[in-house]
Every structure is written in structure tokens, then in C-alpha cells.
Specification:
It is built from 8 helices and 7 strands. With about 240 residues, it is α/β, with parallel strands linked by helices. The chain has a 7-stranded mixed β-sheet with strand order 1-3-2-4-5-6-7. Helix 3 links the parallel strand 4 and strand 5. Helix 2 crosses helix 3. The radius of gyration is 17 Å and the shape is globular. The two termini are about 30 Å apart.
Length: about 240
């Protein structure tokens, strides 16, 4: 099973945008982007194992291993310039994937880190993965993710909760490795102005993990600001990557 879902193939596109979902998320979260993004960009959304059409595939429990697998799968698709966009857990994974790609001589042109604190500043929050099932569901509902609806149905909850819990454990157990390759890629942090999980000050900490140009974009909304602010997010991507809208 392949790692990427491309809702609209564009052989003529000059650039690829790889999108990494949040904890408990799947590639379908980015499906609407294919219609809205510039014709010059081909969108590929990562499908993590253990969910959706990869339900039969074993979970990956370590963030660094998951980043290695995604970077390896991405290698054949790096024949044209590529950017990475990750939301929440996906932002940390995008950063780690970018480090690996740079190390291998195929660095992306830009990384967009959305809705989360930087890799070296991960402590201090309660561990969602240690909560009981109702606690995990309550957390998802509070965050406002699109997955919250599925968790209301008992039959779906049995299917969804295992990978949601795995993802929370994966990101909660993640530790930044300072001795790895230092990223030299331009990076934009994007957050919602009322996200309880990342402040503007914390988001500015992303500047510390790259030697490339850094920018911060703050948009109205909470943790899943990018659902309501999809047009503004895509406009920021177009502007940053200098592609026609």
C-alpha cells in the first residue's frame, strides 16, 4: 500500500505539496485542498498506517521511525521541487522528514508547521494517550477535529480509537534529537489565535530549529483553525511558494 493519496494528479505541475495529518487524522483531511490549490501544485497527503484504507497495516509507534518511512516513500517523488505542510503531530513529523530529506541531498523548498509547538518544546501537557476511552474522546471533541463525529458512534469508535490513541502516544513520546542534521530550509509556523495548545510566543520557537528564513502567520481560530481558514492558509502557501493562485 502506498503512503500518499493524490486526489488530482497534475503531471504538468511545477511543484509538489506533501501534507501530513494530525494525530488521529488521515489523508482525507487534505482532500479539499486539491481543488483549491494552484494548478502549478500537486497535492499528496500522507496516509499513516492503521486507518482508512490502511486499516490492516500495523501501527508505527515511534515518530522517528515514521519520519524515516515517509521520507523513504517520498524519495521517488522528489523529482521536482517539493514543500511540506504538517498540522499538529504532522508538523513535527514534517520537520523530521525535512531533516532526513536534506541529509539525503533532496531538501524540500519550504516547511509549513501548523498548530503546534516546536520540536524542542514538547513537555508540560497532560498525556492524552494515558486517558481512558471516554477521556480520549472528550479530548478530540474539545480540540474540534473532524474526527470527533466518528467517535460518537460506538461501532466507529472501536475502529478509530486504537489509531487515535497510538498517534497521541507517538507524539507524546517524541523527543527532539539535537545531534541530528540541522534543518536549513525556510519554515513558516501557522497557528490559530485562540489555540489552547500553542501560543504565539511558543510558535516563534520554531525559528530555533532551522537555519533557513522563518515566518509566523497567525489566523483566527482554535486548534483546527485551518478548517474554517482554508482559503487563507492556501493563500499563504501560494504567496510563500511564489506560485500563481
Amino acid at each position: 500500500m502506498t503512503w500518499f493519496r493524490c486526489a488530482e494528479t497534475r503531471p504538468w505541475a511545477s511543484m509538489r505539496l506533501f501534507c501530513l495529518p494530525h494525530a488521529g487524522g488521515s489523508a482525507v483531511f487534505y482532500r479539499p485542498w486539491a481543488k483549491e490549490v494552484s494548478p502549478a501544485v500537486e497535492v499528496h497527503a500522507v496516509q499513516y498506517p492503521g486507518r482508512a484504507d490502511r486499516m490492516a497495516d500495523a501501527f508505527v509507534t515511534d515518530a522517528h521511525q515514521l519520519a524515516r518511512l515517509v521520507a523513504g516513500a517520498m524519495a521517488p517523488l522528489m523529482d521536482r521541487p517539493a514543500a511540506l505542510f504538517g498540522h499538529s503531530m504532522g508538523a513535527v513529523l514534517a520537520y523530521e522528514v525535512a531533516r532526513l530529506l536534506q541529509e539525503r541531498g533532496s531538501a524540500p523548498v519550504h516547511v509549513f508547521a501548523s498548530g503546534t509547538r516546536p520540536p524542542h518544546d514538547r513537555g508540560g501537557e497532560r498525556r492524552v494517550s494515558d486517558l481512558d476511552d471516554d477521556g480520549v474522546v472528550d479530548e478530540i471533541i474539545e480540540l474540534g477535529g473532524t474526527d470527533a463525529e466518528a467517535l460518537q458512534e460506538p461501532e466507529l469508535r472501536e475502529l478509530v480509537l486504537p489509531y487515535v490513541r497510538n498517534d497521541f502516544a507517538l507524539i507524546e513520546n517524541y523527543a527532539h534529537r539535537e545531534d541530528g542534521t540541522r534543518l536549513d530550509v525556510p519554515l513558516t509556523a501557522v497557528i490559530g489565535d485562540s489555540d489552547p495548545h500553542v501560543s504565539e510566543e511558543q510558535a516563534r520557537g520554531w525559528a530555533r530549529v532551522t537555519g533557513g528564513r522563518f515566518a509566523l502567520k497567525v489566523l483566527p481560530g482554535g486548534h483546527f483553525y485551518l478548517t474554517d481558514q482554508q482559503a487563507a492558509v492556501i493563500a499563504e502557501i501560494h504567496r510563500t511558494l511564489e506560485v500563481p493562485a
